[in-house]
Amino acid sequence: MGTLTARGEELLRLAHERPDLTRAEAARTLGTGTGTTADLVARLTSAHLIDERPAAPGGGRGRPTRHLVPHRAGPLVLGAVVSHEGWAVGAVALGGAPVATERGTHDGGDGTAVLRAVRAAAGRLRRRAPGRVRGLGVAVPGLVHDGHLLDAPILGWRGLDLRAALAAEGEVFLAGNDATLAAVGEARRGAATGAAVHLHLHVDAGLGGAVTTGGHPLEGAHGLAGEFGHVPFGDPAVRCPCGAHGCWGTTLDGTAFARALGEAPPGDPVSYARRALERAAAGDEDALHAARAVGTSLGRGAGGLVNALDADLVTLGGLAARLLAVVPDEVRGACEDGLMRSRRSAPPALVPAALGDDGPLTGAAELVWSQLWERL
Ligand SMILES: [Zn+2]
User: Fold this and answer.
1) C-alpha 242 – ligand 1 centre gap (Å)
2) pLDDT value at 1 more than 70
């Protein structure tokens, strides 16, 4: 393996990035002549990496061009995600299209049992495509370092060896934080393709996120970057479960809605916030008042981070996307209000994430592909 020429690898990456690529576009982008391109395509086809199918007739003159598509016996990667209530594993072909996905639920009790279920599903997907799976990437809701889930605070899981549980002999393996991998998914396949510096913010039980540059995540020296929920954009009088005062996350989660509504801290902050946002969307004045306060905090913090990072796009996932839908003027207004004057003429777009719950799985699979090119 690892037999591709530099040009062959370039063409393969291009076919992956642009699933609707035609042979003519590939030649133009790579600057290769018709003969050289045909030769490269022939070699990638005989290596069972890509295939061709005729483009739909467009009525133009000349020979119809051909689309480069994944080979039916070509490599696959597995993207997996473990969330607070469930898990999913998808087999993803060249070009990013999922060819099969398995899903399950869990009650959060036993992390080892959940990883066993994910491993079994990955095994079934491998058996459906013998010899084709080349790697697995898994996204988990917590701090990840060197293949270990150090701490998943909401689930109470600590010190799980993800590599030992899920890696297979001879395959690429990687593990990462779900919000970080969701950001990669958005940058590669979602709402942030083409962004130079992209900030992704995801609110569920807490606030997570990541920064991507050119589709790659800023992971930090220990892989722990992106803890935006613990930046002190909040009320210094409020203590965060992390131990610090004034964390931004405490102004965005279910407890923030409860404070604004004058109610006791909810047992299940995520469904509490979801219900409050539903009531706000239906016109309930109290819930709308709370949503405006939370949306304003989200926008103000996003603006501050844009100032610091010089991001050109912000994607919002989970409850943050819901806030943007319910109180868009507060979220966008507070963001623009918080921007430095020099940025106001071209404020960054603030958009909902496009991939939803599949974002982390997509990002995990994409990072495996990135490590695979030189091994094909
Ligand atoms: Zn905190």
Assistant:
1) 4
2) no
